[in-house]
Amino acid sequence: MEGKNTAIFIVTLMVCFATFFINKQGVAADASIAAFNFISTNNKSNSYGLSDGMSQAEHDEIEKQHLLEYKQKRTKENSEKQAQLDTLESQIRALIGNNINKVGMVYYDIKSGKSIIINGDKQFVAASTIKVPINMLMYDMVKDKKININEKLKYEECDFEEGAGILQGTDLSSPISIKTLSDYSIRYSDNIAINMILRKVGIENKYDYMEEMLDHTVVHSGNNTTAEDSCKILEKLYFNVDNNKYYDTMIQAMKKTEYHDRIDKYIPKEIVAHKIGDFGECVNDIAIVNKENPYILVAFTDGIPEANEVIAKVSKLIYDAQE
Fold first, then answer.
1. Which of 30, 78, 79, 293 is deepest in the core (most CB within 10 A)?
2. Angle between helices 245-255 and 131-143 (to 10 degrees)
3. CB of 299 within 8 A of CB of 312?
4. pLDDT of res. 34
5. If you average pLDDT over every residue of the chain, what do you get?
6. What separation in angstroms does the CA of 191 have from each of 51, 158, 168, 198, 209?
7. What's the CA gap between 280 and 251, in Å, rounded?
8. Nearest CA to 192 among 156, 139, 152, 149?
9. Which residues in 48-75 are b (16+ Cβ under 10 Å) and which e?
10. What is the pLDDT of residues 273-317, one digit of tens each?
11. Which of 24, 246, 218, 242 is nearest to 132 (CA)?
12. Helices (H), ranges, the chain
């Protein structure tokens, strides 16, 4: 009986340990729990103790066999998943065709941890996709009580920028709340709003924040990024390991964007939290797609004809292939 109780205690500890790391280590934890479930389902002994007439050696051999069967099952599943990814990547490359070198793309399956990466480390103009990490920085500063969410910012001439947004041409004599500026910068891609936020958080803080998040240096001039870096930024936003309550506010704003001609054009809009970006011939979109099996999709382009449609069709391919 003592051996049986000890075994139950050990198994309980294993489950608790796996569950503790559910956030950033979610894939690994899922695997640990899956292994436990597989073994417990197929276990022939009595409540993880010794069955009547079963020796310790026989019990250990059964457990060893179950673990081997689980590993073989996982290996087969991983092989099948990789084959599916290889097929999907071939379809994406065929769709993009001769413009493949003008694209930077990452598709990241959050549950499996597997991905498709095309020119992932190539530099592209981020355009308005940079508004996502700037807002994340601002909300992290709010969480750390470095910025008051109720503060209102006064417009200055240096904040003006033509292009996207709804503040251009309006009366800007009255201060605007940080929360409203954040919402405008995401939903309407408002350039004046993001400039006012950036002036508050500090441009050098933006670079420092991104370097800490990405764990490598970034160029402190221009507005360039890579598909892999943008994927990591969305990954942080999705997992929210520091439990910043404002991250959900951001995601909801990204779902309510006014722009629907790229990643969410041919898939359900209500499950797509995304941010578009345009600058010259650069046409971009970055998204968290909250399907039952969620994933991240980042697409940067430079000089591709009908780039909006290309991104939309790639997105539909991935959506249909996602289990």
1. 30
2. 150
3. no
4. 58
5. 86
6. 69, 12, 9, 10, 20
7. 27
8. 156
9. bbbeeeeeeeebeebbeebeeebeeeee
10. 999 999 999 999 999 999 889 999 999 999 999 999 999 999 999
11. 246
12. 2-20, 26-42, 56-96, 131-143, 178-187, 191-201, 203-214, 227-239, 245-255, 307-321
Amino acid letter, residue 64: K
| The pLDDT value given to residue 82 | 74
How many CB atoms are located within 10 Å of the residue 154 CB? 11
Q: Which residue type, as a one-letter code, is found at position 54?
A: M
Q: How far apart are CA 69 and CA 64, in angstroms?
A: 9
Contacts of 60 (CB under 8 A, 6+ apart): none
DSSP state of 46: B
Considering only CA atoms, which of 271, 39, 242, 274 is closest in space to residue 137? 242
By CB neighbour count within 10 A (0-12 exposed, 13-18 middle, 19+ buried), where does 229 fall?
A: buried
Spatial CA neighbour of 107 closest among 119, 97, 98, 99 = 119
Q: Can you give the pLDDT at residue 102?
A: 97
Average pLDDT over residues 227-237: 97
Q: Based on the number of CB atoms within 10 Å of its own CB, is 275 exposed (0-12), middle (13-18) or buried (19 or more)?
A: buried
